[in-house]
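TICKET: design request
STATUS: open
ATTACHED STRUCTURE:
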């Protein structure tokens, strides 16, 4: 038996993506904002999308800087990630308040966050306003991840450090295991 889901929370049926901290630089200022809505958009070129509410401080900074970094949050810094999503960078130095450590990126001015387990350095290639959010489309210029946590996919059981996954509202989880279903035939191939 199914039940109706109120439309104002129906997007949570698609929840399950990693919690990320997006960093962007404006002059000497580094803004860090928490984002739960990210998506791969293209393999060639490698494009990713980040949904940002227009009133967030990071929104205009991304628009002006035309670059950003997506930092994948492990479960052990979820408290800092939630803090970065609950205060405005217009009023608070989030790096100072959280103790997160900026690190030099390879291709962009925005920093990586040392405590995060993966990073996508992006150059802004497009932006589209959809409803109450802007989708910033970034071309991935460089990517890095902790070597003992990532090969062709996240090694979620190798260490305590696992990606935090947002389920909606104030609910999170972490992956418990990685598995690959058996192929349906010998010639089965996958992409992405």
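STATUS: resolved
RESOLUTION: sequence designed for all positions
ATTACHED SEQUENCE:
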């Amino acid at each position: 038996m199914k039940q109706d889901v109120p439309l104002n929370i129906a997007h949570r049926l698609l929840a399950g993506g990693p919690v990320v901290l997006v960093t962007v630089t404006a002059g000497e200022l580094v803004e860090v904002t928490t984002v739960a809505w990210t998506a791969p958009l293209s393999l060639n070129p490698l494009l990713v999308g980040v949904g940002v509410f227009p009133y967030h401080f990071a929104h205009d900074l991304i628009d002006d800087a035309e670059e950003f970094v997506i930092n994948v949050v492990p479960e052990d810094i979820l408290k800092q990630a939630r803090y970065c999503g609950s205060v405005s960078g217009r009023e608070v130095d989030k790096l100072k308040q959280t103790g997160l450590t900026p690190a030099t990126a390879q291709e962009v001015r925005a920093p990586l966050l040392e405590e995060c387990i993966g990073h996508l350095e992006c150059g802004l290639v497009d932006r589209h306003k959809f409803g109450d959010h802007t989708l910033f489309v970034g071309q991935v210029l460089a990517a890095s991840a902790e070597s003992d946590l990532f090969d062709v996919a996240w090694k979620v059981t190798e260490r305590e450090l696992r990606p935090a996954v947002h389920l909606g509202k104030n609910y999170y989880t972490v992956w418990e295991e990685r598995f690959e279903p058996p192929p349906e035939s010998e010639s089965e191939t996958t992409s992405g």
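CLOSING REMARK: Residues 57-65 form the longest helix (9 residues). The chain has a mean pLDDT of 86.
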